[in-house]
């Protein structure tokens, strides 16, 4: 790993990925983009890692978005499809992810926070889709309609005006708020709640949410039943009820 993106593989199955360019407000410069591709791939390939937390270094910015200097220098028009490492989009992931937003999440910073499954934010964090301020566009924001109401989304995209972490929590963009000094601990606590569950059950649950988001009711029910078969037929599906009846903690194997 380069020092632009730090990777901490913890012994509890949680990976912490940190964008480490605070002097540039953790913008998505070339070295950061390369580091994120490598970090997400490392997370997905490690069978001992079950949840990843993405955060930014320093107190000011989670990620300020794309590298505008690079856009000017290269005369960039439409960004290449594979330019940014977006979980579940340009990066194939099968495990849950959490954005721990420590400061400003603007434009591309909002984009990568939005791409994660869950979001914990510092009370001092701010969020904005600022593309209208610099003549760019935000097609990546389309899935936002499944997270927040249409008129709120419309205002955010049309004005580019920042919102506070509290407002982001109120509209459903953020799952939990934490004081700045407690942010990472709060994200780890949420990740720990996930890792306490059976691995195949967690995967089936995540698949169910995404299928329900993308399909109509009947199609989602059918697809979710299919996605759950492997879970039901696993050893863990027998271990869970057995542990409950024996009044002990389950010993998950993920098989």
UniProtKB/TrEMBL annotation:
Gene3D superfamilies: 2-enoyl-CoA Hydratase, Chain A, domain 1, Lyase 2-enoyl-coa Hydratase, Chain A, domain 2
Matches recorded under SUPFAM superfamilies: ClpP/crotonase (SSF52096)
Record keywords: Lipid metabolism, Lyase
UniProt entry tagged with the keyword Lyase: yes
Family matches, as InterPro entries: ClpP/crotonase-like_dom_sf (IPR029045), Enoyl-CoA_hydra/iso (IPR001753), Enoyl-CoA_hydra_C (IPR014748)
Protein's UniProt keywords contain Cytoplasm: no
Pfam families: ECH_1
Top-level taxon: Bacteria
Region (Disordered): 231-255
Family in the record: Belongs to the enoyl-CoA hydratase/isomerase family.
Annotated protein name in UniProt: Enoyl-CoA hydratase-related protein
């Amino acid at each position: 790993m380069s020092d632009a993106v730090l990777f901490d593989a913890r012994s509890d199955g949680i990976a912490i990925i940190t964008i480490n360019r605070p002097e540039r407000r953790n913008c998505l410069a070339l070295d950061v983009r390369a580091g994120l591709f490598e970090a997400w791939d490392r997370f997905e390939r490690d069978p001992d890692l079950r949840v990843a937390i993405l955060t930014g270094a320093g107190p000011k910015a989670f990620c300020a978005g794309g590298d505008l200097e690079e856009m000017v220098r290269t005369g960039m028009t439409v960004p290449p499809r594979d330019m940014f490492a977006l979980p579940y989009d340009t990066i194939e992931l099968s495990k849950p992810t959490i954005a721990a937003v420590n400061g400003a999440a603007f434009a591309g910073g909002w984009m990568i926070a939005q791409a994660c499954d869950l979001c914990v934010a510092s009370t001092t964090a701010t969020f904005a889709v600022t593309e209208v301020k610099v003549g760019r566009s935000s097609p990546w924001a389309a899935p936002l309609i499944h997270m927040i109401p249409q008129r709120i989304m419309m205002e955010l995209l049309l004005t580019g005006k920042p919102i506070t972490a509290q407002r982001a929590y109120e509209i459903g963009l953020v799952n939990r708020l934490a004081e700045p000094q407690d942010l990472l601990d709060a994200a780890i606590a949420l990740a720990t709640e996930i890792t306490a569950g059976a691995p195949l059950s967690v995967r089936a649950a995540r698949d169910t949410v995404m299928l329900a988001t993308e399909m109509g009711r009947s199609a989602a029910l059918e697809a979710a039943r299919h996605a759950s078969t492997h879970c039901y037929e696993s050893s863990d599906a027998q271990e869970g009820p057995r542990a409950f009846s024996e009044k002990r903690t389950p010993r998950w194997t993920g098989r």
